[in-house]
Design a protein that fits this description.
Number of domains: 3
Structural class: alpha+beta
Shape: rod-shaped
CATH class of the largest domain: Alpha Beta
Amino acid sequence: MFRSLWIKFLILLFAVSVIALSAAFILRELMIHDFREYLEGDREDRVSWVTADIERSYEKHAGWKREIIGELSEDAVWAFMLGFEIRLLDSGGRVIMDTKRALDTLSPLVRNRVLGVSERAPQKQAGSYLPYPLFLAGKEIGRLEVSFLQPQKELVFIDRSNRFLLFSLLALGGLAFVLSLVLSRRLTRPIKRLAAAAVAVSEGNLKTRVPVVGRDEIGKLAAMFNRMVQILETQEALRKKLLANTAHELRTPLGAMQGELEGMMDGLFPVDRQHLGSLLEETDRLKNILNAMEELAQAQASVLTLKKQHFELGKFLLQVVSRFRPAAQNKAVEFNVACEKGLIVYADPDLLTQVMLNLLSNALKATDRVGRVTVRAARQDAEVLLEIQDTGAGIRPEDLPFIFERFFKASEGGFGLGLAIVKELMEAHGGRIEARSEYGKGSVFSLSLPG
C-alpha cells in the first residue's frame, strides 16, 4: 500500500507518538479516578461526622422533639458548608429537617456568609439523594438523605485538566507529526541516495559514490557501498586490460604466421622445412597461450580437483630442482636447497610441482651468470613456509604490486600468466604467495601452505 519508505517511517513514528499520548491520557484518567476516590472517601467521612452528630442529638433529646430542631438546623448548615444537602426523615418517612429549611432559619447576614462559602460550589451533582440509615442501640430511628454538591474547585480542576489535556494532545500531536516528518525524511534521505547510486551503478556508472554521514548502520552501509563500487571499478579496469592484453598476446603469433603465409603465397619465401618449422613454432606459442589461459580460468573458477596427499617436502624439492641443474650449470648459477629434515606437507604434488617449476624458471631467467638460487622450507606454527630467493635483477618497485595480475609482464618474454596461475594454485590449496624484491639485487617469493 505504502511504497515510499519515508511514509512508512512517518506512519511508524506518528503511531508511536499516538500510543505515547494515549498512554498519557490513560494515566491522566487514572489520576482523575484516584482523585475522585479520594474526594468520595472524604465525603463519606463528612457524612459520617454529620450522621454521628444527629444520632447524638436524638439520644440527648430522647426522640425527634421540637428542642432538637435547632441542633438539626446547625447540622444541616454544616453539611451544606461541607458540600452536600440533606433531608432528615423519621422512621415513618416524615421530613423533619432539610437544607433549605435550615438556611431559612438563619439571619440574612449569616445566610449570606454561608451562601458566600457555598458559591465556591454552586452546582449540584446530577443524581438523586443517597440514603444513610440512622441507628440508636441497634434500632433504626430514621434516615439521612444526602445529595452531594460538586465543589467549584473540583469543577475548575477537572475543567482545567480536560482543557490542558486537549491542548496537550493537539500540541503534542502536531509536534509529533512534524518531528515524525523530519525524522523520517532524515532517516530515509541517505537510503534514497544509496538507491539512486545503486541504479546509477546498475546502468554502468562506476564513478558513482555516496557521502558517508555518521558512523551508524546507514553510514557503514554507505562506506561499504563505496568500497564495493571501487572494487567493481577496479575489476572493470582489469577486465578491459585483460581483453587488451589477450588481444595483444594472440595478435603477435597470428601476425607472424600471417606474414610468413602471405610471403609463401607471394613467392617471397620458399615452402621449405625452415619456414614450416617457423609456422609450427608460432602455432605452439599460440597453443601455449591458450593452455595457460585455460589453466588460469580453471583455477579462478575453482574447478580444480586437488589430489592432496602427505609427502616429504625435502625429497620433493630436490627432484624439482634437479630438472634445472643442466641449465643452471650452463649459466654457472648455483642451486641450493635447505629444507627442515623430515618436513611433511599436505598438498597436491602435481600442482605444487607446477608452482615450483614456474617460480624456479623465473628465478633462473632473472639470475645472471655466477648467481645463486636458494630454496628454503621450514615449519612455522601451523604453516609450512617455502622461499625461493635469487640474486637476479630484481623487480622494479612500481611493478611489484602488479606482478600477480594477468598478462602483466615486468620484462620481455613470456605471456604474463605464470605468476597469476601460481597465485590461484596457492589459494586453491588454502595458502598464499607474497613477493619482495630489491631492484638490482634479487627477489624472494614466499609461499605459505597449511600444515
